[in-house]
Amino acid sequence: MGILQILIVIAIVVLLVKPLGTYVYHVYSNDPNKTDKWFGWLERFIYRLIGLKNRPGMTWKRYAVSFLLTNIVLVALGYLILRLQKYLPFNPNGIENMEQTLSFNTIISFMTNTNLQHYSGETGLTYFSQMAVIMMMMFTSAATGFSVAIAFIRGITGKGATIGNFFEDFVKSHTRIFIPAAVVVTLVLVALQVPQTLDPVLTVKTLEGASQNIAIGPVASLESIKHLGTNGGGFFGANSAHPFENPTPLTNVIEILSMWLLPASLPYVYGRFAKNTKQGWVVFGAMMTLFVGFLSLIYFSELRGNPAMNVLGIDASQGSMEGKEVRFGIPQSSLFSAVTTAATTGTVNNMHDTLTPLGGLGTLAEMMLNVVFGGKGVGLVNMLMYAILGVFLCGLMVGRTPEFLGRKIEPREMKLIAIAILAHPFIILAPTAIAFLTDLGQGSITNPGSHGISQVLYEYTSSAANNGSGFEGLADNTPFWNLTTGLVMLLGRYISMIAMLAVAGSLVRKQWVPETIGTFRTDNGLFYGILIGTVLIIGALTFLPAIVLGPIAEHLKLG
Amino acid sequence: MNAKRKSMLNSAIVGRAVKDSFIKLNPIAMMKNPVMFVVEVGTAIVLLMTLFPGYFNAKDDIGFNLTVFFILLFTVLFANFAEALAEGRGKAQADSLKRTKKEITANKMTGSTIKVVPSTELRKGDIVIVSHGEMIPGDGEVIEGLASVDESAITGESAPVIKEAGGDFGSVTGGTRVVSDRIVVRITSDPGESFIDRMIALVEGAKRQKTPNELALSTLLVSLTLIFLIVVVTLGPIAGYLDIDLQVPVLIALLVCLIPTTIGGLLSAIGIAGMDRVTQFNVLAMSGKAVEAAGDINTMILDKTGTITFGNRMASEFIPVGGESVQSVGEWAAIGSLQDETPEGRSVLELMKKLKLNANESLAAGGEFIEFKAETRMSGIDLKDGRKVRKGAVDAVKRWVVAQGGAVPKDLDSHGDSIAREGGTPLAVAVDNRIYGLIYLKDTVKPGMRERFDELRRMGIKTIMCTGDNPLTAATIAREAGVDEFIAESKPEDKIAVIRREQAEGKLVAMTGDGTNDAPALAQADVGLAMNSGTIAAKEAANMVDLDSDPSKIIEVVSIGKQLLMTRGALTTFSIANDIAKYFAIIPAMFILAIPEMSVLNVMSLGSPMSAILSALIFNAIIIPLLIPLAMKGVAYKPMKATKLLRRNILVYGIGGVIVPFIGIKLIDLVVHLLV
């Protein structure tokens, strides 16, 4: 039964990739199509409002500056609101202003689509902050990521000097994708009993006669964009494990699909732009293969349970239920964990801290790779970076200098890619080491031995991959953790985005090399294998020593 | 010379390479190869720890540290040796070239006086006289006279070649010897810039610059090195949380095993050896970039004559038209060819002899010979009595006759076309406004060309044949040879137009040429192969010079270029794939004392932690010399579809690269474990 539940969800995703991908392609291809009728008037109105009558194509530099400035403005605005939320409206619960390092961390966290939460939503944010900062950024950060991914795709598949207009992409991401989808998902969730209200906390009398505060609020709307935008920041501290965020297995599946479908359809969109959908399916296939591998690791490891506990005679037939919700069980929890770390959403419906060591390894590994579907756009961009890397390493073996989609891969591209592949392990491993070297870092670790290592590694990996889920248990609301994870999130988001946009900008201007029988093909089964191999050897082996000391050592010690 | 070049590994070269491997330890030189530089720094650190253990708070494991030091040192030395060995052949060749360049004196002509000066004092534009037995003092052009020249110092070909003033055989190279007659030469290069100087620099590898692909690959290797540096540096503090104390030499061993030392150590050797393979093939590539570009070629433009066919088109028949006789066609053809030194012209006279026909040769006496020109496409003679005799391309002769008010015999075209259909070349023979008939010139495709063009097609390379022949002739030869496209009646500017057209589609184009009018096209092409027998302009415009002057060699040059790229790719893939096994050797060994359960990861069941680390390190070191032969010879290359080629290479070097170190490390461990 468990496997069947999982297979059904995967089958739905596979079936919806093509129609959804086709829709997304039409949104960004900028060719006239029938959806213009529904959204065109609204977009024209917005364009007129912001003075964007002409929307000329941008070079990669202009595109990068545009999205960075947009993000900076939003960060400034959001930071002000958090620091002044006490005085702003919609604060029926009398919540205080947010402390400055926590504000820094929170604002970076949401702008970078990470949604690492060092605060607890119920007590740390006003309704106004939830809506004007958290939800606003959930839309805008997802739209930013999506736009950059589309611009990257245009760069590597197109000709000319420009890669699209950021503001147009940004607006369209909202009008044609995130807002309509969020409205639909919100309504469905409300129908399935997820609260949506501006009323203050409910105070109720319990059966024993004591009074209890029950936190509520505009949950359903946040819940929808939280997943659609692969954001992951929960309304409540307990995130999607909370019964108001995710009341039933059905809402659980809806939430899984809402965070998974858009990233899963992007490879197909890429194939459409490349005018060769096989290119897209090869990338999708590689992602799905890695996903199924990690999902199996999590699922079977959780199902097997904790041998040390099993020895004590505790019923292990359900698997390891510690930290999991009974209404989801092992399959729905494992799938949710695998998807949330693959799509770098960071929402959780069970506590990752209590996953079995190998289950935790599965979630950690997906974030370390950051290519298994990945967050809004970022995953595809990273996967294509590995594709270029694979082409570069193996392409020489056909006796030609490497070409990807008809463009030569030369020193400039390799330098930019080198920056991107260096950044990821650096911002994970260096702060991890620093955390262990300093009392500031060590003081927050709540577990001895290998599990302590996993905690720290998870925190920085989640930040670097802009996932945002926490291996809860780390006492992370301290200036040290707020600042270091804040920086890691910033670097994790923007270094690779800028580097990869530069790669796109460099490739788009290149002379095309015609395809011949002597060309290295990137749309066949062989390349699918090369892609997976490159990801595993270059991407995964880097983290092996750290993983061996963390989850693997913990697993081995369990016996 | 040729034989000398081929004996690749004589003991002198090896001896010198061993010496050079130590000289190359100089850190300043080493910094050019960042991967090996990191290994060298690691070696130095381990040495210091071995010598001053107390200072570094190191454990008293001097034996282990010393062993690590020596293995690391040999890793660096092996890499240096690979490079030195690859350079060795070139250096040996450069030395012998330098010997031929030794002090030459020149007879410099200033006005009417002749002064003997050393060749180093000659400048561009000086005039020198070179007589029988003397060395030509510098690159130049013959402006007067004719001589046979022994060019074996450069080409390795011992038969002397004729050099004469004017035309395409007028360029001479410094350092070659005049073996008969006397020529006056205008020097065209300043000292230090002559062909032989450039050749020395090239084979010596002195000015070797990294190619774009090497640069891109180096960038990747450096970033992998940095990644593993981060991994190893951060491992200490992380392990410290588990109270595992990692010794610095062990961490350095892990680092050296993980960074791509195999390809890092062999990369420059692969490049040098690739250039050297071209040189041994008697083709001089001006840069490694040109050799790489050869691997990328999409389109190849080949001259029909000399490349695809033997080119000595021989007159085989006289065909009268318009009621003329064989005798009259032959006679006028012969009169028009008396002073024509081209093979075609001479073959006309030979055919006359064979057919026992006679021509009134006195008619030609005192006449003015008209040379063949690409523009007119005719040659002939203006007789003293005012009559003009012409032979040449049928349409050109037709126009010439019509222009003088003559008529074109009705059967001319049908005879001409039937010759062309058979692959021959018809030459029309005319006197003033009257066409007498046709000379049937036959050309033959070189044996084996068809197979080679099929091969090129399998590599994805399109061949375009260029010929001055008419379209029908061209089509017949093209069909016979199996080329993909042809350009008939082509003029030099057509070639450049074709190159530009192909390049506009993003294709890389290769061509061969020897004449001055080929120079612009040679410069425009991505790979331009000039013939050594060609003009200086052609040689300067090209990025490769074939010392044997065999234009069909361009095909092999493409294979060598592909082989070079494949070798680089194969060893990179191999090197990176090796990491998996090395991890499985070292990681459990590092942690097994603190976490005994780690023994599960010791999949190779290596004897002890110490022997596991040493075995991985030793494997990492000796794989470099083991792969030197492959780096030098290049991986085997047979033309086939890219997908098939890739599958084969991935299997051998990718999957092989994963498996081989598991076996290798295990075998080494069986021995090492007995000793430690």
Automatic annotation (TrEMBL), chain A:
Listed name of the protein: Potassium-transporting ATPase potassium-binding subunit
Pfam families: KdpA (PF03814)
Keyword Transmembrane: yes
MF (Gene Ontology): P-type potassium transmembrane transporter activity; potassium ion binding
Similarity field: Belongs to the KdpA family.
InterPro entries associated with the record: KdpA
Signal peptide extent: none
Subunit structure: The system is composed of three essential subunits: KdpA, KdpB and KdpC.
Entry's localization field: Cell membrane
Name of the gene encoding the protein in the UniProt record: kdpA
This protein's record includes keyword Flavoprotein: no
Mode of membrane association: Multi-pass membrane protein
TM stretches of this protein: 6-28, 63-82, 132-156, 177-194, 250-269, 281-300, 377-396, 416-437, 480-504, 525-553
UniProt source species: Cohnella thailandensis
GO cellular component, one term: plasma membrane
Role description: Part of the high-affinity ATP-driven potassium transport (or Kdp) system, which catalyzes the hydrolysis of ATP coupled with the electrogenic transport of potassium into the cytoplasm. This subunit binds the extracellular potassium ions and delivers the ions to the membrane domain of KdpB through an intramembrane tunnel.
PANTHER family: POTASSIUM-TRANSPORTING ATPASE A CHAIN, POTASSIUM-TRANSPORTING ATPASE POTASSIUM-BINDING SUBUNIT
Keywords recorded for this protein, A-Z: Cell membrane, Ion transport, Membrane, Potassium, Potassium transport, Transmembrane, Transmembrane helix, Transport
UniProtKB/TrEMBL annotation, chain B:
Similarity section: Belongs to the cation transport ATPase (P-type) (TC 3.A.3) family. Type IA subfamily.
Biological role stated in the UniProt entry: Part of the high-affinity ATP-driven potassium transport (or Kdp) system, which catalyzes the hydrolysis of ATP coupled with the electrogenic transport of potassium into the cytoplasm. This subunit is responsible for energy coupling to the transport system and for the release of the potassium ions to the cytoplasm.
NCBIfam families, alphabetized: ATPase_P-type, kdpB
One GO CC annotation: plasma membrane
Annotated ranges, domain P-type ATPase A: 104-204
Gene3D superfamilies referenced in this protein's UniProt entry, alphabetically: Calcium-transporting ATPase, cytoplasmic domain N, Calcium-transporting ATPase, cytoplasmic transduction domain A, HAD superfamily/HAD-like
Localisation per UniProt entry: Cell membrane; Membrane
Residues bound to Mg(2+): 514, 518
Residues annotated to bind ATP: 340, 344, 372-379, 391
Taxonomic superkingdom: Bacteria
SUPFAM superfamilies: Calcium ATPase, transduction domain A, Calcium ATPase, transmembrane domain M, HAD-like
Major enzyme class: translocase
Subunit structure: The system is composed of three essential subunits: KdpA, KdpB and KdpC.
One annotated GO molecular function: ATP binding
Name of the protein in question: Potassium-transporting ATPase ATP-binding subunit
EC number(s) recorded for this UniProt protein: 7.2.2.6
UniProt membrane topology term: Multi-pass membrane protein
Chief location of this protein within or outside the cell: membrane
Reaction(s) this enzyme catalyzes, per UniProt: K(+)(out) + ATP + H2O = K(+)(in) + ADP + phosphate + H(+)
Sequence intervals crossing the membrane: 35-56, 62-82, 215-238, 250-273, 583-604, 610-630, 650-675
Record lineage: Bacteria, Bacillati, Bacillota, Bacilli, Bacillales
Catalytic residues of the enzyme: 303 (4-aspartylphosphate intermediate)
Gene label: kdpB
Keywords: ATP-binding, Cell membrane, Ion transport, Magnesium, Membrane, Metal-binding, Nucleotide-binding, Phosphoprotein, Potassium, Potassium transport, Translocase, Transmembrane, Transmembrane helix, Transport
